[in-house]
Design a protein that fits this description.
Elements lengths: L12 E6 L3 H4 L6 H11 L1 H15 L3 E4 L5 H6 L5 H8 L22 E3 L8 H4 L2 H7 L4 E7 L1 H14 L3 E10 L3 H14 L2 E3 L1 H16 L11
Helix pairs in contact: 3-10, 8-9
Length: 224
């Protein structure tokens, strides 16, 4: 289906990364058997690392939306949906643990804004994504991370409902199996303002930076 092609004003654009943590991205994760094949196939870690570097290069911030549960959450929560039950049974994203920590290749740097952690699937409801983005003057997010059909899709829906333009990177995410991943890609086409690929977006961001440096327009439109 035809999608709008988003123009990037670098002063109002940010990378937005969901769950760059060991409990999704490490081979030691209890979920690795489910998500690992997709992470490896799509080279998610390598792409997230490259995007982090490019963000600094072109002068846009990176927002981290991480998952976290406390011991009290594991003890007290009484109504668990399907994904909650998997995470609670395996004590995933437990505060202060290896699983909760960032993947070693994706540690925050001085260009990273770490938002309050989310406990549902979207930081817009159980974190502070909306106010953080608005207070930093962001109108467009380039969204990627884990996992495609859960947190990425949930963040996309809520970002759009909150008035942000959303570009989803289809190849910088993965899910628990090919069927879940393909379902997410189908939904992305209906939800997002644009579905793009990592190398394509990097090229366009660099073009926008070049235009800005030359004193011309700070927006670059990609023509299909």
């Amino acid at each position: 289906m035809p999608l709008e092609t988003v123009e990037f004003d670098l002063s109002k654009t940010a990378m937005f990364v969901t769950d760059p943590q060991n409990d999704f991205l490490s081979e030691k994760s209890p979920a690795w058997g489910l998500v690992g094949p997709g992470v490896i196939k799509n080279q998610v870690i390598q792409k997230e690392k490259k995007l982090m570097s490019v963000a600094k290069e072109v002068g846009i911030p990176v927002f981290y939306s991480t998952h976290m549960y406390t011991p009290k959450d594991f003890e007290n929560w009484t109504s668990l949906n399907g994904i909650d039950k998997i995470m609670f049974d395996n004590k995933m994203f437990a505060q202060g643990t290896f699983g909760h920590d960032y993947h070693p290749d994706l540690k925050p740097d001085d260009n990273t804004i770490v938002m309050n952690p989310h406990k549902g699937l979207s930081n817009f409801w159980s974190g502070d994504a909306a106010i953080q983005l608005r207070q930093n003057g962001i109108e467009t997010i380039i969204l990627y991370g884990m996992s495609a059909n859960m947190c990425v899709e949930s963040h996309a829906r809520d970002a759009i409902e909150n008035g942000f333009d959303v570009v989803i990177l289809a190849d910088a995410t993965a899910a628990a199996g090919d069927a879940a991943y393909e379902a997410a890609l189908t939904n992305f086409e209906f939800l997002a303002h644009e579905v793009a690929y990592t190398d394509q977006i990097i090229e366009r961001l660099r073009e926008a930076k070049s235009e800005q440096y030359s004193g011309s327009y700070t927006t670059v439109k990609h023509h299909r």
